[in-house]
Design a protein that fits this description.
InterPro entries: BTB/POZ_dom, SKP1/BTB/POZ_sf. It is built from ten helices and no strands. The protein is mainly α and 144 residues long.
């Protein structure tokens, strides 16, 4: 099931160079158990009933293991639940995982709420590049 959903896992199981190809077992230590449970739920059901606020972690795991469908599913869920409190985290994540869709939607949300976003705790930790992009977006659409 893992190999069918991810070329990363397929390589682990089929290339003969990895331990997984010898044992038919994979050890995933870099994903917390709750996120892994949701990842497996998605693999078996093509859906996750309740993300339990794990969209961020699922996007990270899906990106790492090259699981495009899960990444899209978790991204869509994250975008439905954007808030002043989490938008900057998802904006940075979009940049990190090279998701133009996530980055652009988070940028739009943040620029729509620029005054509140600037007052958030995360504002100070943003890279200069993201700050510049955010101000450009806000100015472009007359939000500043």
């Amino acid at each position: 099931m893992l190999a069918a959903s991810s070329d990363v896992f397929m390589a682990m199981f089929l290339d003969g160079k990895h331990q997984e190809s010898q044992t038919n077992e994979v050890r995933i230590d870099d994903v917390d158990p709750k996120t892994l449970e949701k990842l497996l739920e998605y693999l078996y059901h093509d859906n996750i009933e309740d993300l339990d606020g794990l969209a961020y972690e699922l996007i990270c795991a899906a990106d790492k293991y090259n699981m495009a469908n899960l990444k899209a599913f978790a991204t869509n869920s994250a975008l439905k639940n954007l808030s002043i409190e989490n938008v900057l985290s998802f904006l940075c994540l979009g940049e990190l995982v090279n998701s133009d869709f996530l980055t652009q939607r988070a940028m739009e949300f943040a620029s729509d709420h620029i005054e509140e976003v600037i007052r958030s705790d995360e504002w100070q930790s943003l890279s200069r590049n993201i700050v510049d992009q955010l101000f450009a977006e806000a100015i472009k659409y007359g939000r500043m």
